[in-house]
């Protein structure tokens, strides 16, 4: 059987996209009973999720164009529609295209040419959007970095990309001045966050002192020069994004036009109701793949009105929802969990909210049930739409849909994406409902890590089908219906001092079921024997006796966990630490325990 499957995968190597589409339609027929024939029990071959897609969408081929041309072709006939809203200012698609063209001429006049890497250290502002697409028109590459990074980290990413040009938010001016002499920067464009704010609200001016190297956005826009428009080249990397960088230097990720366009194409041809003139609330920063691909390029290329929030405060999520009444929002689980418990939302009608998206982190079953009940009781027709992906696959590979949204699942692969479950660190595929490493192939797989071929080769492996697969480092399983469940990170697996392996997600799930527990994070801790498990817990505000609650948690663990999986330490804290993107910061919790380990050793 194994030889047969390997031979079968070999036969798929030379299929064109059209032939693959025809094969996928046949596979759908096997799943729906239209055809009769054997299935293999392997998700990468059977693709059971195809039964959720329409035949005509399965047969569609992806357009091979630049990200700018994808944006333009999608909206050239509806240019009077609103593209962006920024602090009340509305920008039509006509104005957006005009600004992109002008910004391309401005960059050309500055000396930017095809192949140059231009660093953009900006939040979500209209100038950020203009610049990303303008550079794509020229054939230059935006290097998107987080303005909240330390000055040393910003310097390292500018130097690594050998950028001669920098676009930065003016709030970073002092950081840049400290490190500019250690870079090859020739021109620095400083942009005020209020530059595109309506005049009545424009109270702060950019105070940059201009010189031969430093200019402000207004000065930048005064000079124009013609340029040769960039042509689509398959496989050429077009945007440089970075991983989170919470532990050490962020990794640069090279994304192509096809990578970024594929996210739009796949969501457009899925089972989520996405259409022109709907409202998309963009609270994800542009420098994350989740930002540029899913929260900027996707809604704009689908003709939506995108509301830009340059500095998102999770504590104001309710106010943004109430003010803008968005059709679509992408966030992380903690945003929705907190919203569902917010007294200000008690009598709010959420019928406008059609796709409350959640990704970047897992959500416990008990929390998901509460969030879904909140939506239902507030007249939203949607459940929480969970997704799964990573920067290395251009943000998204899997999403829940109207017809595939099981509790704690992350839905089904996108229409052009294939997911298989493999024995960790091998290319041996596992069958349905078997837990292993989640691996992904499809048009969204990155070109690789920037200037890091060895890490690229560890992450992307060519399998016997000739396709490049991202080995995610995440654990999960797929059901016979093609629905994916993520059960944890291989890196989060805790090996106890006696060699017993434990997966924190399963422990967190049990603890979260204890009445009175608001949230929980399980991490590695230490005692005199070695590694043990510790649970950090947040109690509901109405809990008065934490000792009693801890004993109830322990009792619940004894009932539902193997003895060696029961945490040996419990600690209540006021709140779980979060990363800049709103995910639980497990590293910070582990670092606390590592500090305690050093104290233990020295005592």
Written account of the structure:
The chain is α/β, with parallel strands linked by helices and 603 residues long. It has 3 domains: 67-231, Rossmann fold; 256-489, ANL, N-terminal domain (Rossmann fold); 494-602, ANL, C-terminal domain (GMP Synthetase, Chain A, domain 3, 2-Layer Sandwich), CATH 3.30.300. Helix content is 33%, strand content 21%. It is built from 19 helices and 27 strands. The strands form 6 sheets. Strands 2-1-11-10-12-13-14-15-16 form a 9-stranded mixed beta sheet, with helices on both faces. α8 crosses α9. The chain is globular, with a radius of gyration of 25 Å. 46% of the residues are buried.
State the assembly state of the protein chains.
single chain
Which range best describes the helical content: under 10%, 10-25%, 25-40%, 40-55%, 55-70% or over 70%?
25-40%
What's the CATH class of the largest domain, please?
Answer: Alpha Beta
CATH architecture of the largest domain: 3-Layer(aba) Sandwich
Distance between the termini: 59 Å
Strand content: 15-25%
Find the count of extended strands (DSSP E, 2+ residues).
Answer: 27
